[in-house]
UniProtKB/TrEMBL annotation:
It comes from the Bacteria. Belongs to the universal ribosomal protein uL15 family. Residues 84-151 form the Large ribosomal subunit protein uL15/eL18 domain. The gene is rplO. Residues 12-36 have a biased composition (Basic and acidic residues). GO terms for cellular component: cytosolic large ribosomal subunit. It comes from Bifidobacterium vansinderenii. Pfam families: Ribosomal_L27A. This is Large ribosomal subunit protein uL15.
Length: 154
């Protein structure tokens, strides 16, 4: 077991102590002059001695919460954001007319993927369009139907 006559020491629970300076006693403020009493390490007078500064106080400067504008109005988190395409753009993309779907418009770069699409009536239509899965304004609908096209909102 022990070679060269060395003594083996076994540490037991009752021998364990915290490292020197690791455990400090709590400062018992306001318990008389002999134990951190009177000013309690805050010095004399002044705001820091009184500790009457509320959170957010900036020394008399106009505070941040008053500098910022008030929240006004309401924004619905469920608002539908439509991608807009005008008839003039449709006439550019589809000169011969034909079937127009959201996937086709995304493939041609007219709209972004993942949003509903609405066709507005700015521009003139010569060819007949068949719109599928797209919302249409009243003016665009009348122009498309006048040109011989049709609309199916699926």
């Amino acid at each position: 077991m022990a070679e060269n006559n060395e003594e083996v020491t076994i540490i037991r629970m009752h021998d364990l102590r915290p490292a020197p300076g690791a455990n400090k006693d709590r400062i018992r403020v306001g318990r008389g002059e002999g134990s951190k009493g009177k000013t309690s390490g805050r010095g004399t007078k002044g705001t820091k001695a009184r500790y009457s500064v509320r959170p957010g106080f900036e020394g008399g400067q106009l505070p941040l919460y008053m500098r910022l504008p008030k929240l006004r109005g309401f924004k619905s988190p469920f608002k539908k954001q439509f991608q807009v395409v005008n008839l003039a753009r449709l006439a550019e993309l589809y000169p011969q007319g034909g079937e127009v779907t959201v996937e086709d418009l995304v493939a041609k770069g007219a709209v972004r993927k993942g949003f509903p699409v609405k066709v507005l009536g700015d521009g003139e239509v010569a060819a007949a369009f068949t719109l599928k899965g797209v919302k249409v304004s009243a003016s665009a609908k009348s122009k498309i139907e006048a040109a011989g096209g049709s609309i199916s909102e699926e």
